[in-house]
Amino acid sequence: MIRAAALAGALTAWALVAYGGRALGLVNPVLMPTPGEVVEVAGTLARDGSLAQHLAVSSLRIAEGFGLAAAAALGLGLLVAVYTPARLMLEPVIEFVRPIPPLAFLPMFLVWFGLGETSKVAFIAYTTFFPMFIGIAAGLGRVDVMLLRAAASLGASRRELLRRVALPAALPSIVVALRLGFGLAIFVIVGAEFMGADAGLGNLIMEGRVFFNPAQIVMGALLLGLLGSLVNGLLQAAERRVLRWRALG
Length: 249
Description:
This protein has 249 residues and is mostly helical. 83% of the residues lie in helices and 0% in strands. It has ten helices and no strands.
């Protein structure tokens, strides 16, 4: 209820600034689209089917890139948590590459993988991998040693320690890392689709900029925010369900 009220308050504030500013002559109508104009643009694009196409294309790219990065981050995070030589070898390399802005490599991704889907998916995977890996590895590394020793004293094998103790204990950190990674995937999809894309929400935003249609730009941004909020809610719900099962167990 509080979250819904906050969103409603933000929408109301936007409407007041847009409509009130126009009525008082304080806001340039070209620079501040109203909620009605954004809804009108969305309706026009929805009726010809292009809005669903743009949304589906971006969602698929995000899902593929994020999925690849999440799988790699989880696998390598587990590896460095249980195998010290792997941590000593991987951490220096990752810490060297991680601070480099991903957009600096975007032209190279286009050169390496072309203008098709591969370059966009690879760019999203590259960008989202590092924060997820750091979060997952840190979460697994902070598991209480006493829990591991207690389980080992009861005869738990190495695999059981990992599956029944370490992973459940690190689950909150893993979910936070996944949420952060998906947020970054939403962020970089716009940059990825600015170059060499003929569909997607980033392409839709670019078209709004080229043809100076602020309502279309705002609509594309709001759809990305909505997509990110939905996935974030799903991840939080999954975390609550798993933690509840762990408590009941």
